[in-house]
């Protein structure tokens, strides 16, 4: 299945739809930072995101330092943002809603 | 408990003792990259490292992109490398030995 990159208009819609995510400097990714009380809480979240990623067959680029988790979403096969990023970002937001 | 930074000589010993780890440009951290067959294998490893980190109360700065895991170890309380980094690095190496 080919994955299409979002048009500029669709990308603007995505950003409006995901107010807690920021567009990367390259315009090809979105980013959100999460903070928890400690590593254990952060890792519980990381584990739930990992399960979402496998379920959706779409994986984040992410990093963790103790209680902080930084998540970047992009779709390499599309050369930028795609609907997959929107879906995964919404799923992640629901975990911490 | 105060955590002491390793002396330069002790740091050289640590590096000799951990041939798969590289000293960071700042001289205050060590780094190793791991590659797996897919995200599932990478995340299994990530989970095991998380358990080690909690057990040792010493946590990595790390990132993951699909099958790749990058781990940086440093001891902020010591302002550089300490014995905690040596211990955690050895524990991580044993997971993939």
Automatic annotation (TrEMBL), chains A, B:
E.C. code: 4.2.1.96
| An example molecular function term from Gene Ontology annotations | 4-alpha-hydroxytetrahydrobiopterin dehydratase activity
> What GO biological process, any one, is recorded here?
tetrahydrobiopterin biosynthetic process
Q: What is this protein called?
A: Putative pterin-4-alpha-carbinolamine dehydratase
Catalytic activity reported: (4aS,6R)-4a-hydroxy-L-erythro-5,6,7,8-tetrahydrobiopterin = (6R)-L-erythro-6,7-dihydrobiopterin + H2O
Q: Which UniProt keywords apply?
A: Lyase
**What is the species of this protein?**
Croceibacterium xixiisoli
Q: Do you know which NCBIfam families this protein is assigned to?
A: PRK00823.1-2, PRK00823.1-3
What PANTHER family does the entry give? PTERIN-4-ALPHA-CARBINOLAMINE DEHYDRATASE
Q: Does the keyword Lyase apply?
A: yes
Domain of life of the source: Bacteria
One matching Pfam family is Pterin_4a
Matches recorded under InterPro entries:
PCD_sf, Pterin_deHydtase
Q: Belongs to which family? A: Belongs to the pterin-4-alpha-carbinolamine dehydratase family.
